[in-house]
Write a structure and sequence with these properties.
Blueprint: H1 2-43, H2 49-66, H3 73-94
Helix pairs in contact: 1-2, 2-3
């Protein structure tokens, strides 16, 4: 009898933890959902969350490759290589 009560309480706590985690993930993913909607509107086609993260990755790499003014030349080449690599990987993943 005692074991049954313990198992029920443990499963109830697990279910509560899962629902709390799910609610937190929904809140944290909301800005990315908005970004996905924006990208879909700009591209005139529906894109999934993976494609959204690829496009975001390309944008971040572009900012690091172009905007740092006082940056050593070697580091700038690393950022440019990163940008090209993300651009190619995004292009390959969209096919």
């Amino acid at each position: 009898m005692k074991n049954e009560v313990t198992v029920r309480m443990n499963s109830q706590k697990v279910n509560e933890a899962v629902s709390v985690f799910s609610a937190i993930m929904t809140i944290l993913m909301q800005p990315f959902e908005w970004l996905r909607g924006y990208y879909s509107a700009c591209l005139n086609k529906n894109i999934n969350m993976r494609q959204t993260f690829h496009l975001l990755h390309v944008q971040i790499a572009f900012v690091f490759a172009v905007f740092p003014v006082a940056c050593p030349l070697l580091l700038r080449f690393v950022f440019i290589a990163w940008f090209v690599a993300t651009l190619v990987s995004t292009n390959l993943s969209s096919e």
